[in-house]
Amino acid sequence: MRHLFLLRHAKSSWDDTSVADFDRPLNGRGRQAARRMGAHLRAMKASPDLVLCSAARRTRETLDGVGTAVGGAEIRFDRGLYAATPDRLLAALHGVEDRFRRVLLIGHNPGLERLAGMLVGEAGEADILARMRGKFPTGALAVLVTDIAAWTALGPGACRLAAFVRPDDLKEE
User: Any idea which fold 1-10+19-105+113-120 has?
Assistant: First the structure.
């Protein structure tokens, strides 16, 4: 069994409109949400083996907020994941070595949300699928499971949506 965790970056700041989109930081609410999501991942005992993270500032800061939930995972920053299409995100996942069983991908919408929908199709509990399709807000986490033997086999309908968690679903630390 392989696990794929799709985490949308937490809420970013628009306070300084002169800052390029790629360089926007998290705002206070976003930093809190990232910490709550990290606590949730630790409680799930869901430490990834590998983290693929967009190189944008808000995704890097989201990863910082998640903190120890990533444990000793290998971390790879990839500028190509910034504003990536579902096909580009899938290509990055196809490049993951098969020794990794649990991968956390931190990225952006709309690509991340569309990738999640493509990978799960209709596989998962109806209420969880409906929540994910209703809105994939900043800081939200989709947990996908699959029995594929190799990451290159990842494709449409290859996964089941096991959980979908939004920061507002979690209690304050």
Answer: Rossmann fold (3.40.50)
Q: Which of 163, 173, 133, 162 is nearest to 34 (CA)?
A: 173
**Cα–Cα distance, 163 to 145 (Å, whole number):** 9
What's the CA gap between 35 and 91, in Å, rounded? 29
For 85, the token pair is 């299409």
- Is 80 exceeded by the pLDDT of residue 123? no
Q: Looking up tokens 């209709």, which residue turns up?
A: 122
Cβ neighbours of 85 (radius 10 Å)? 12
pTM, full prediction: 0.95
Cα separation, 128 vs 66, whole angstroms: 23
Digit-coded pLDDT (tens) for 84-113? 999 999 999 999 999 999 999 999 999 999
Average pLDDT, the chain: 94
d(CA 41, CA 44): 5
Rounded to 5°, angle at Cα 125 from 123 and 128? 105
Block residue for tokens 């000793």: 72
pLDDT band at 68 (very low <50, low <70, confident <90, very high): confident
Residue 16, helix vs strand vs coil = coil
